[in-house]
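Exam revision sheet. Question 4 asks you to relate a sequence to its structure. Input first:
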Amino acid sequence: KKFHDLLSQNCGNKKLIELLANLQEQIHWLRNISLKRITFAGSVKEHLAIIEALKKNDEELINKVLLQHLERAKKSSLAEINSWSNTSKIG
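Answer key, structure tokens:
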């Protein structure tokens, strides 16, 4: 959470900061869901790749690693939600 907060607070986009602050509860819920299927080590590896891309100030690389990170989190969250759906149909 602190990593994501640090990035959002330092993005330089006031509107984005306000939007993320308003969505904080939903973001926290989704992050918890995705972490049920994503390993901590995998998340750390992705976060380090994001930090390295930011240090290099390489916009193309930043976009690439952020999209990979978001795509993996999305897939993980959807898989977890789908498993709930399948479980509720059985029971």
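Marking note for examiners. The chain has one domain: 2-90.
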